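User: Hi! I'm working on a homework problem where we have to compare a predicted structure to a textbook description. Could you give me the structure for the chain below?
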Amino acid sequence: MDNKNLKELARLVLYNRSYFLSSPLINPEVLQISITNRCNLKCKFCSIHKYTTSEEEEIGLKDIKNIITIAKNQFDIKELILTGGEPLLLGDDIVRISEFAHKKNIRIILTTNGFLLQKYARSLAEAGISHFHISIDGLKNTHNYLRNNPESFSRAVESIKYLVKIRHMYSYNYSVGVAMLMLKSNINQIYELYKYADSLGVDIFELLYYLPDNTEFSVTDQTFLWPDSNDMDKFNHIYKKIIETKTENIQFDKYFDIDLVCRYYKRIMHHEDWKCFAGFKNFFITMSDPKKQGRFEPCLFMCKAHIPLKDYDYDLKRAWYSNQAHKARIAIKKCQVYCYQKCFSLPLFEKAQRVNNNFLKSFDLFFENYNFKNGRQCFFHLFVAGRI
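Assistant: Happy to help. Predicted structure tokens:
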């Protein structure tokens, strides 16, 4: 067994044990910062505008850099996700943040609607962005309708073209991804957008899962945007077409779980089908706060735990192991809200668990995926050696 796979196994086991104990035995692997709640679009599927704060209520550049430094020192964070709202509304500060994190050897992912991206693309590339995650939710008319802006599609596409162009010109080492939210109005355009993104030189194509209210997970009422069973039957054929298609540049999301996604949209998914590791895997911070102190939110808006970082003197480790965070993790474990957010899942482990609920047998499957001959014996030796 090589060291990389050994570490991956240990990481998955530690996350699972953390979940069982409602207490983390492993550092968060991702620092995710919602830089702003402000956005330049008002999309039909997004509720962030309900929580919009002013620029004056956002924590400044100095504090954000301080948080990144502490996360690196205390957790050895390897990845930083900059999100919003629309992060590019920070202007040059988003470049400075990226540059600062890159110098600390942190991989940086920027999520954006792409509207303002071309203006900052070169500076962000120089600053060391690792991945541009650009949202496009259909072909031109559909995307513009969903985004409530007649220029949104063309602006995003021109940004992608420019990123691909300068990457070749200056040998930048970043990837470009298109993320598409699966909605009733765009199911029939998924394959066409996939092929179009490939022609643009995009590297990764992801499908994201719709929440009726993406700022209040407890709202589960179906809306006019929710695909029905017939839509998902169509999608099954579309998915087969996608994975059978040879492409020039693009790769489909390797962690996409067709069975689980269809069960989710058909509303037959059960809580046993996946395990939510919110509060264990990601350290999520929102910087938009009327009290200007920043908040650690173990499960975004679901468990109602808004843990002010100022209360812990911006000591992230204290906040991570705080009683408030512990209570939030217990609430997450008991959560019965109907949602599926893959950013809080561990895909390989979840696949194994769904095949067989027996814990050891699930690890047999996990090891089998990595061509290990005797999964249980390896796991036993890891346990005895105190590595797990």
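For your comparison, note the following. The CA atoms of residues 92 and 102 lie 15 Å apart. The first strand starts at residue 30 and ends at 34. Good luck with the assignment!
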